[in-house]
Amino acid sequence: MQLDPIQESGTQDRRVRRSRAALMAAAVRLVSERGTTDIPVTDLAEAADVSRRLVYLQFGDRDTLLTEAAIDLVRRELLPRAADGGDASEGVAALAQHFAAHRDFYRPMLTGSCAFAMTSTLNRLFSSLNRPAVRKLFGELDQRTADDLSEFIAGGAATLVNNWVIKGTDPLDPEELTNRLLRLASTLTFSHQGPPDGDHAR
After folding, report:
1. Which of 47, 98, 55, 108 is nearest to 76 (CA)?
2. Cis peptide leading into 171, omega within 30 of 0?
3. Domains in the chain, start-ordered, CATH in brackets?
């Protein structure tokens, strides 16, 4: 008995999702284990139990697969935690804990062939996370200025995180990075809003 076209399409979609998920999981595991992004496509395909051809069909090349694996990891593990509860300090703590837990993956991603794509991805991530805080802090801004300011702040935060992941002492201390980022946020807020009324110089 043949599947009707709709059923067949749904089956193919599930296969595509499964094979993509398997390839991205294999990418995270192999990069973490080997400490490099210089992994043959054959090894990635074998680890995911798919053909080399499927890697190229679904991702185009190895570096795109590795970058998509990083984006997927952030979406699955970091974003739900960072957005949970809406508390900024908890979101920053979740971010630091995530990068510390996956340092073996992110360090080669930030220093190898995917470094530019990875840095751009982190900038977009931090920009999207801090956009609500920028609007709350600076009030009514036109869309372009709000986006530019979010990206400007995100670039600085991404640089701190990158340097911490790449050069930080083992084991990484998430609390230390959390405190650094929160101090910067507090300084920015204080500088913009000024001290409380009672603290003005007389």
Report:
1. 98
2. yes
3. 5-194 (1.10.357.10)
Q: Per-residue pLDDT for 88 more than 60? A: yes
8-state DSSP, 85: G
What digits encode the pLDDT tens for the residues 3-21? 444 444 566 688 889 999 9
Mean pLDDT for 77-88 is 75
Q: What is the pLDDT of residue 192?
A: 53
Q: How many helices (H) and strands (E) does the chain have?
A: 10, 0
Residues contacting residue 183 through CB under 8 Å, at least 6 positions apart = none
Token representation of residue 185: 């946020």
Phi, then psi, of 113 in degrees rounded to 5: -65, -20
Q: Comparing C-alpha atoms, which of 22, 95, 28 is closest to residue 67?
A: 28
Question: What is residue 50's DSSP assignment?
Answer: S
Residue 169 DSSP symbol: P
Q: Please name the residue that has the structure tokens 């200025």.
A: 145
Q: Which tokens in the block code for residue 136?
A: 């709350």
